[in-house]
Amino acid sequence: MSSDGEHSFDVLVVGGGLAGMSAACKLAESGLRVHIVEQATTLGGAVLRRAQTGQNPNLNGVHESSWRDLMARFDRVRKLMSVSVCSTYTGTDSTGAIVVTNTSTSTSVSLRPKAIIVATGALEKVRPRMGWHLPGVMTAGALQVLLKTSLRAPKKRVLLAGSGPLLLAVAAQLTRLGNPPLAVIEEARPSRKFWHALKLPVGYLLEAANYIKVLKVAGVPIYEGRFIARIAHCTSGLRVSFTGDDKLCFDTDFLALHDGIAKNCYGMRPVGMPIWHEAGDCALGLGARASRAHGEAVAIEVIKQLQVFPVESVEMKVRTKELLDVLSRERAAQSTLAKIYSVDEQSALDELPHEVIICRCEKKSLSDLFDLGADPTNREIRLNGRFAMGACQGRFCAHWINMLRKKAGTAEGDRLIGSHWPIKPISMQALIHEADHLLSAEKKSSD
């Protein structure tokens, strides 16, 4: 890589998961030089995260064949690829330079590729609940990454709650690693919407059936239609109580929450970048099956924009249609899943007590939000209320804040978070290193 404005590669791909690798392979197969930036220590993304030992955790065999195919393609075009692990896209500055930070060395470099594809994966949604900020509470996605990278389940008690098929997947993975969860508590009632499930592709049904079989054999109870009433400290860890006439309650050491996934491109939209695309769950939130197809489709668009070939071939046109058909099927499947796992989130938010924490980073409560007045501006919410100003920069709270303000749509949420530089906190050491790099590059060019 260079920081002097000269291209040592043509396209920067941010994210080494299914979408990012699919895009990178297609670009390299067309003769373009590609650099992949991945925040983890290995390629694979959240879905196919490898263990720290390099072993395959084999906890999600559904997508393994797809990944093996991608890695075989990667090996064939390896000479046109370069990879930086433990690195993150920090943002695009006012000159259009892309800054990438190595998190292990706290150093940054400026890059000026001809195009960038952002494939950072989905953002996991977790709705605020009473006590969700306490130690021992995590997201189901974070727990899943821990299982895949360590190949070990936590030795203590684990409870899963919220809504969505990921809860079943993580519960089954915990069970296979020798520590079945206390229970899976689902807010929706998917068993009552069996007719919707019949519209799903066979692969979805087989995957769900396998998870449920693992849990049933292990005796893991699955509850439906239950919402968390309160999470509190107790002498043995956490006490999680649920709504319902039977006063369901569990004492646990860890609570993993999940309420679906969302797009993950907050604050990223650049100003000076000529060719910019988002791929996979980062842009669509349609799950792993769609990510590979979308990554390749975006790569084809970049190939056309960079005019790699003078005329679009018939083969490329046919392939584009095939990929769009895949995306159409997956969009329909995800729409069906949304109906199966539908939850009235607005009502759940409206019933929250005023002392519940909304912003975990800054420990700001619902009462703090209401204290800002009937209709505060985005600036007042951020600067006066300190919401969306912590380490997550609103990725976890902005959506819920806007729902609490009863303003529909995602545009308002985008404005609350805003497009900012850098898109995530960066150390002074990294900025100093970046400045030194630029000065060195300028000196070389002047010599």
Structure description:
The chain folds into three domains: 186 residues, FAD/NAD(P)-binding domain; 123 residues, 3-Layer(bba) Sandwich (FAD/NAD(P)-binding domain); 73 residues. It is α/β, with parallel strands linked by helices. The strands form six sheets. A five-stranded parallel sheet has the order 3-2-1-7-18, covered by helices on one side. A hairpin with a 2-residue loop joins strand 13 and strand 14. The chain has 14 helices and 20 strands.
Compact overview of the structure:
This protein is α/β, with parallel strands linked by helices and 447 residues long. Helix content is 37%, strand content 18%.
Total number of domains: 3
Q: Could you describe the largest sheet, including whether it forms a barrel?
A: 5 strands, parallel
How many strands in all?
Answer: 20
CATH homology-level superfamily of the largest domain: FAD/NAD(P)-binding domain
Could you tell me the radius of gyration in angstroms?
23 Å
Oligomer kind: single chain
Helix content: 25-40%
As for the CATH topology of the largest domain, it is: FAD/NAD(P)-binding domain
What is the 3D form? globular
Strand portion, in percent?
15-25%
* Poorly predicted runs of 5 or more residues: 1-7, 407-414
Quote the distance from N terminus to C terminus: 20 Å
Structural class: alpha/beta
The CATH architecture of the largest domain is: 3-Layer(bba) Sandwich
Average pLDDT level: 86
